[in-house]
Amino acid sequence: MRERLFDLGLWLLLCVPVLLRSDPNDGGSWLQVAAGVTVLAGCVAVSRRWPLVALGATVAASLPATLELFTPSYSLALVAFGYLAGRRQEHTRAALWLFGAVAGTGLLLTWVTRTSLGQWFTLLLALALAVVAPWLIGRYVRQYDRLVRSGWELADRMEREQAVVADRERLRERSRIAGDMHDSLGHDLALIAVRAGALEVSPDLGPEQQRAAGELRRAAADATARLRDIIGVLREDDAAAPTSPPGETVEELAARARASGLAVTLTPTPVPTLPGMPGLALHRVVQEGLTNAAKHAPGAAVSVTVTQDTSDVRVSVVSGPGVTTGGGTGTGTGLVGLGERVRLVGGALGHRVTADGGFALTAVLPRNPPAPLPAAPTSARELDRARREVRKGLARAIWIPLALLAALGLLMAGVALWTQARSYLEPADYARLQVGQTLTEIDEDAEDWPEHPLDGPPQAVSAEPPGMDECRYYRSTMLAAIPVYRLCFVDGHLADKAEVP
Q1: pLDDT at residue 325 in the model
Q2: Spacing of C-alpha 278 from chain mean position
Q3: CB 491 within 8 A of CB 470
Q4: Could you tell me the CA-to-CA distances from 207 to 76, 132, 261 in Å, in that order?
Q5: Is 80 exceeded by the pLDDT of residue 135?
Q6: How many helices (H) and strands (E) are present in the chain, helices listed first?
Q7: Residue 244: is its pLDDT beyond 50?
Q8: Closest-CA residue to 330 (of 300, 289, 299, 362)
Q9: Which of 102, 135, 187, 494 is deepest in the core (most CB within 10 A)?
Q10: CB atoms within 10 A of CB 4
C-alpha cells in the first residue's frame, strides 16, 4: 500500500511540469499534455521492475521536443527516473549501454536534421547532469543502504554465533569432564585393580582374603566399564581432547604407579621439562601408557624413556606381556584423545605391538609449539567488503561525472578546432582577391579555399556595408576569433573586402 501511494505521489509530481506547458501560446496543446501524462503513468508503473525502461521512455518523449534533451515538460522526470534507475537497478552495464545509445541517437539526429553540433554538445551536457549524475547518486544511496543492511545482518548473525559458541563451550566442558574422569579416575581404578589382582594371587593370604581381593578387582573392573560408559555419554564425537591433565610431574606419576604395584623404570631422572601445552602433553602420554599397562598387561615391567635434542622431546612407554587377570578390553578412545592432544601442540603420536607381545606408545613433542592460527573474522571481513563497495560507489559518483565533463570539453574543443580549420582563409589567398571577381574566379584563383564560412559575423562587427547582397566571414588566424576577413558580394561579384573589426 505504501509503495502504491508513493508511485501515485510521484506521478502527480511529474505531471505538474507537463500541465504547465498546456498553454497553446507557449507551444503546448492538450493533446501533448494527455500524451505526456499517459507516458509518465506508464513509466511510473514499470519503474520498480524495469527502471531503465522508464528512463528510456522519458528520454524518448523528450527528444522529439528538442535535440538538447532537457525540456521543461520532462526535466523533472529525467532527474527522478535517473535517480530511481541507479537506486533500483542491480547491475550497471545496461545503464551504461542506455547512456551510450542516447548519445549516439542524438548525434545521428543532429546529422540527419543538419543542425549545429552545439545542440549535440548541449544534449551530452544535459545527459551528464540531468540523468547520469542522479543515477550515480542513486547508486551511492543503494550501496549505503546495503552497508546499513549488512551491518544489521551481521549483528543478527553475531547474536546467533554467540549462542552457538555458548553451546560449543558447554559441549567442550562436558568433554573436559569426560577427559578428567578418564585421566584421573580411570588411572586410579586401574591401579586399584592391579593391587587387588596382586593380592588375589598372593600366597600370604587365606582363601577368604583372596576371594575378597578378587571381588575388589572385579568391582574395580566393573567401575572402569561403567566409567567408560559415562564418558561415552559426556564426550561428543567431534569433541577435542581435553587439555587439563592432573597437575603432577612425570616423576610423581611414575612413583604413584610403583606404589600401586607396577614395575616402572623411568630414565633419565629428572625428566626433561617442557613449558606450557607440550609439558601437559608429555605428562598425558606417560599417564596413558601406564594406565594401558595396568589394564591390559598387569604384572609386566614398564619402561618410560624420555630423550631430547635441540628442537624435540621424544617419550616412549614400553610394556611387556603381562599375566592376564581378567582385565577388560579398551575401546581406544583414550589413544584417540591423546593423539588429538599431541597434534594440537604440533607433535606426532604412534603406537605398536612389540615383538614379544608387549605394547609401545611413543610421541614426539616440539619444544616450541606453533602459534595457533587466529580464527578468520568473517563478520569483520564482510563488513569491510561492504564498506569498500560503498567507497567505490562514492568514488564512481565523483569521478565519472568529472570524466564525462572532461571528455565533453575535449570533444567540444576538438570540434571547435575542426570548425575553425574549415573556415580558415590563408592570408596569401586573401591578398590575391580582387574586387569584381566572381565566386567561380575566386575559387579557381585560390590555392586552398575554405569549405565553409563562419556562421555569422563576430560580436565585434557592428554593421555591414550597405547595399550588399551577402557578406561572408572567414578566419584570418587559427588561434583567435578576431580579426576576421569579410567578403561582401553584389550579384555574385566581390564588391568589398576588409579585415575587421
Answers
A1: 40
A2: 39
A3: no
A4: 110, 104, 21
A5: yes
A6: 15, 8
A7: no
A8: 289
A9: 135
A10: 8
pLDDT interval class at 363 (50, 70, 90): very high
Q: Which three cell numbers stand for residue 289?
A: 601408557
Q: What is the mean pLDDT of residues 293-305?
A: 85
What pLDDT is stored for residue 304 in this prediction? Answer: 92
Separation between Cα atoms, residue 388 and residue 79, nearest integer Å = 27
pTM for the complete prediction?
Answer: 0.41
* Integer Cα distance of 286 and 349 in angstroms: 12
CA of 483: how far to CAs of 106, 120, 457, in Å?
Answer: 34, 28, 11
What's the CA gap between 81 and 102, in Å, rounded?
A: 15
Q: What is the pLDDT of residue 481?
A: 62
Task: For the beta carbon of residue 178, count every other beta carbon within 10 angstroms.
Answer: 23
Q: Residue 362: which of 333, 342, 344, 334 has the closest Cα?
A: 342
Sheet holding 470-475, edge to edge: 470-475, 484-490, 493-500
Q: How far, in Å, CA of 116 to CA of 273, rounded? A: 93
**Helix residue ranges, H only, 359-377:** none
Check whether 78 has a pLDDT greater than 80. yes
Residue 321 and residue 327 in contact, taking contact as beta carbons nearer than 8 Å: no
- Within 343-469, strands assigned E span 348-353, 359-366
Coil, helix or strand for 472?
strand
Q: What is the DSSP letter of 131?
A: I
